[in-house]
Amino acid sequence: MPFFNKRIKLWRTVAVFLTSILCISVLCSIPSVADNGRLDPPSVSAHSAILIEADSGKIIFEKNADERRHMASTTKIMTALVAIENADVDKTVSVSADAIGIEGSSVYLYEDEKLTLEDLLYAMLLESANDAAAAIAIEVGGSIEGFADMMNKKAAELGLKNTHFENPHGLDGESHYTTARELAIIAREAMSNNDLRSIVSTHKKTIPLNESEGVRLLINHNKMLKGYEGAIGVKTGFTKKSGRCLVSAAERDGVELICVTLSAPDDWRDHTALLDYGFSLFESRILCEKDDFRYIQPVIGGAEEYVLLSISDDVKVTVPKACGDVEQTIELPRFSYATIKKGDVIGYLVYTADGVEIARVPIFAQYSVERIVYKKTLWEKITGLFSR
Q1: Cα torsion for 291, 297, 301, 304, to the nearest 10°?
Q2: Per-residue model confidence as pLDDT tens for the chain (388 residues)
Q3: 8 A C-beta contact, residue 228 and residue 246
Q4: Cys-Cys with 160: which of 70, 132, 151, 182 at CB 3.0–4.6 Å?
Q5: Which CATH number applies to 48-284?
Q6: Which of 195, 199, 218, 198 has the alpha carbon at shortest distance from 208?
Q7: Which of 161, 184, 151 is nearest to 78 (CA)?
Q8: Residues annotated as catalytic (active site), given as ranges
Q9: How far apart are CA 67 and CA 45, in angstroms?
Q10: Global pTM?
Q11: Where are the alpha helices (DSSP H) in the chain?
């Protein structure tokens, strides 16, 4: 019995110890919250990561953000962007034989199958279909290589220096790479396109199946759409060489964030922690409502003595919760000269916080004011002859 009691005490000690370790581990995985509600920067499993505020592009968090790495199927964000910018999404595509049997994820397209470009975009972005990516590239760029050139041209237009594409689907290639920072720039550009934004936020979609009565059911691989409040995109990716890659976007109360991780063993947790961190730091503010700004400006030489000025929309900005008071400045000349056209930019409404400009909004003329052409009288013309 004494030996048995000692065994019980030993197991109790071990159990208490293991429970303590488990509790410490759980507590360490929960980001700490300051008194003001702002979270501390999280630790992430990703080799490379970045979190940005989408409206301004401001960097909130970064880790090895400029290191070139393989990007796997997150490539397809650029593929979709280039395709949408260069072709009509309603266009009917006849699937090329060269798009059939591409390695990796597939929706098993048929040669000469007829689908719209939009159908193929859904297949590529939801099911990560490499055959759909190839079909899009061949249709829009004439070939895989031709489309890759278009992708690289777009990368150059975006000012990217550490991104290069070999293909539209993301299968590994020696000269197929990006960085977390530059992939975030691509994602930000993509999310500004309404068609692309709508597709990547879709959880489930059906598209035709080779002109038969059947359909293909597409399910978005991005678990963030259902697992994270406010998630609106963007794209997953994986190869053995790249590891797990993920680009996510989420919006809450007018604040939109974009997060990128490359080679992240625990990417879902990384993105949850990073997005939570970002949302704890930023808020959206309406600085001026459209109907609250009206300005009457004198006009010289016009059919009207004044012109009414306004702004085109509410002035809404995303700012750090800790930012100071916002100051407004109206940059306008004392008067304008006719002729003035409706929609002409006459000046700017400028907002600053802590000495930094956070918004510059054009001030427009609400209507046109024509210039008065002065015509001399007959007497003025005659007297003018003798005054020379």
Answers
A1: 40
A2: 444 444 545 445 544 444 443 333 333 344 554 546 788 999 999 999 999 999 999 999 999 999 999 999 999 999 999 999 999 999 999 999 999 999 999 999 999 999 999 999 999 999 999 999 999 999 999 999 999 999 999 999 999 999 999 999 999 999 999 999 999 999 999 999 999 999 999 999 999 999 898 999 999 999 999 999 999 999 999 999 999 999 999 999 999 999 999 999 999 999 999 999 999 999 999 999 999 999 999 999 999 999 999 999 999 999 999 888 899 999 999 999 999 999 999 999 999 998 889 999 999 999 999 998 766 677 766 776 666 5
A3: no
A4: 182
A5: 3.40.710.10
A6: 218
A7: 151
A8: 73, 76, 128
A9: 16
A10: 0.82
A11: 2-29, 76-86, 117-126, 130-141, 144-157, 180-191, 194-200, 224-227, 267-281, 378-386
Q: Residue 383 corresponds to which amino acid? A: T
Retrieve residue 226's tokens.
């259902």
**Which is it for strands 204-208 and 215-219: parallel, antiparallel or unpaired?**
antiparallel
Tokens matching residue 60: 């909130």
Counting Cα atoms < 13 Å in the Cβ hemisphere of 73 gives 27
Quick one: fold of 289-365? Answer: Peptidoglycan synthesis regulatory factor (PBP3), Domain 2 (2.60.410)
At 283, which amino acid appears? E
